[in-house]
Design a protein that fits this description.
This protein is α+β, with helices and mostly antiparallel strands and 115 residues long. It is built from three helices and five strands. 29% of the residues lie in helices and 31% in strands.
C-alpha cells in the first residue's frame, strides 16, 4: 500500500453498495468514481446473495474496491463488461473455493488550460 493510500472496511452489517457510496462521498473528486458504485452493485447482484467481503483503498490517483466471495465464479463475460467501463478489473481465484474481484478507477489529475 502506498503512503498516500487510505484503506476502508465496512462498518458492522454495512451492505457493499452503501459502503462504496459512503467511501465515494468522502472523496474530494467524486465524479469519476460513481462508475465503481454501479459495478459493485452489478457484482453483488450477480453473486445472488452469496456472502462476500469488501474493502477499498483510495489515493489521490485511484480507488480500488476488492470483493472476495466463495462458490461459483462470476461469468467471464460479466468481468469483461465491467472492464469495459472502468480502468482495470482483475478477477482471480484466491484459494480453492474463493474468488477475488478488484475494480480500479483512476482519478484524472485536474489541470488548468489557458484561453
Amino acid at each position: 500500500m502506498a503512503d498516500d493510500e487510505k484503506k476502508y472496511i465496512p462498518e458492522e452489517d454495512e451492505e457493499p453498495g452503501k459502503f462504496v457510496r459512503r467511501i465515494i462521498a468522502e472523496q474530494p473528486d467524486r465524479e469519476p468514481l460513481h462508475i465503481v458504485e454501479q459495478l459493485v452493485d452489478i457484482a453483488v447482484g450477480v453473486l445472488k446473495g452469496r456472502s462476500c467481503q469488501i474493502s477499498a483503498t483510495v489515493s489521490l490517483q485511484h480507488m480500488k474496491v476488492t470483493l472476495c466471495h466463495r462458490g461459483e465464479p462470476i461469468e467471464e463475460r460479466m468481468i469483461l463488461l465491467m472492464g469495459d467501463h472502468t480502468d482495470r478489473v482483475e478477477y482471480r481465484p484466491d484459494s480453492n473455493d474463493s474468488w477475488q474481484l478488484i475494480i480500479r478507477r483512476d482519478i484524472p489529475p485536474l489541470f488548468v488550460t489557458r484561453r
